[in-house]
Amino acid sequence: MSWIDALLLGILEGLTEFLPVSSTGHLILLGSWLGHEDEAAKTLEVVIQLGAVMAVVVYYRNRLLDLGRGVLARDPASLRFVMALGIAFMPAAGLGYLLHKKIKALLFGPMPVAVALIVGGVVMIAMERLQRKRGQEGLTRLQDVTPKRALIIGIAQAFALWPGASRSMSSILGGQLVGLSTAAAAEFSFLLAIPTLGAATVFDLVKNGQTLLDAPGGMLNLGVGLVVSFIVALLVISGFLRYLKRFGLTPFGWYRIALGVLVLALASR
Q: What is the value of pTM for the model shown?
């Protein structure tokens, strides 16, 4: 893998991590197209997400600092929100730990990604239509995420362990399911990315980091991918929130279906 390949992966990761289109799925498809399907490439496709995590930390730095001060002061609202994040984090963390090897062995390929893209797109469009039918904007405050709602969001996020399903899509749909507005669900999804993606990248780096670093240009590729994904993701976050408030999830659903069908058509040739 050249540093240019790592640059392309970093751009794609930053563009897609917080959009409900599956960054991992897109990275697998791009890696396959570039001819990188070894263990080092698969590890880079996971670890590169750390750049996007740092973008969330920087974007929400003031809120995170306030949250940290609230926790130290034992503010009930801050403690409840941290508890909600912890509860939502646990299902994906537990299943990811147990199924990590099988997921990478069986699902890191174009066909599983295509299936997940199509199914996820259909579900997104159906959920948006249901939301419009209800005629309610939903709860708009992150403080409304109770432990029970957080657990449901966490269970929904766990479906994103299947590459192509999208962590962002799954957690946003979970938020909508428990009554959050699309924008509030997206914000909770962004903050939930910090423990979820942070744990996933550190876990994969500890287990397979040496394989990545031993590959030709491994350290350079990792550095390029992380820096580029951080910069691009930071630019994407605020624009995505504005877009969601105006257009919702439906356009992303149709994009997912179209991409999934294209991948299946190319794979069947």
A: 0.84
